[in-house]
Amino acid sequence: MSVTDPLSLRRRPVVLADLVPGEFAADLLLIALAAGLIGALAQLSVHLPGTPVPVTGQTLGVLLAAPALGRRRAVAASAAYLALGFLGVPWFAGHAAGWAGATSGYLFGFVVASAACGRLAERGADRTVWRAIPTMLAGECCIFACGVGFLAVDLHLGAAQAIALGLTPFLVGEAVKLTLAAGALPAAWRLVARVRR
Which of 17, 51, 59, 61 is the most exposed, fewest CB within 10 Å of its CB? Predict the structure, then answer.
């Protein structure tokens, strides 16, 4: 009769956050760190002429955090970022807080993107660059669908004008962020595999 190693009975890691020991306290810490990451990257903000939407690092924060945390923790982190910002924590773009007006749709899009990217990562979509790229693209689509849609409603714009103001000026920058995130997560998995040997 063989003795089963108790370590072998543990659940295999599905997303990077599953590698952190502990349950509830670890989840709270990871959620707080992810919300803080999004808030810190929001301060990398540049206002473009002709559009009310700034270029920020927030989307990069969401694209990095959501697959690393998995759907449940990622949604909690984005929702915490959103709720605390609306309640007065000055960590929206440019140290802003409170209702973000026409750009609020992008913030709500972070929660939707977190659900999508986190779920895809739970299915292994962040393990290679070629699988991570569609995952990040799905997240970007969620963010911009919510953002451009809300922008159109709030500013009473037609679809073409909303796209011209809320999507087109950001395509190059978002492609760079997507590429960075799609490269970083598989690299993190390779590093973890090396360390755990």
Answer: 51
CATH number assigned to the domain comprising residue 27: 1.10.1760.20
pLDDT in tens, the chain (197 residues): 444 444 444 566 678 877 777 777 888 999 999 999 999 999 999 998 889 999 999 999 999 999 999 999 999 999 999 999 999 999 999 889 898 889 999 999 999 999 999 999 999 888 899 999 999 999 999 999 999 999 999 999 999 999 999 999 999 999 999 999 999 999 988 888 888 77
Q: For the residues of 63-104, what is the DSSP string, one character each?
A: HHHHHHH-HHHHHHHHHHHHHHHHTT-S-BGGGB-S--GGGH
Structure tokens at 135: 């995952």
Domain span at residue 122 reads 15-195
Neighbours of 3 (CB within 10 A): 5
- Other Cβ atoms less than 10 A from the Cβ of 42: the count is 24
In a domain, 64, yes or no: yes
**Tokens found for residue 79:** 């929702």
Whether residue 171 lies inside any domain: the answer is yes
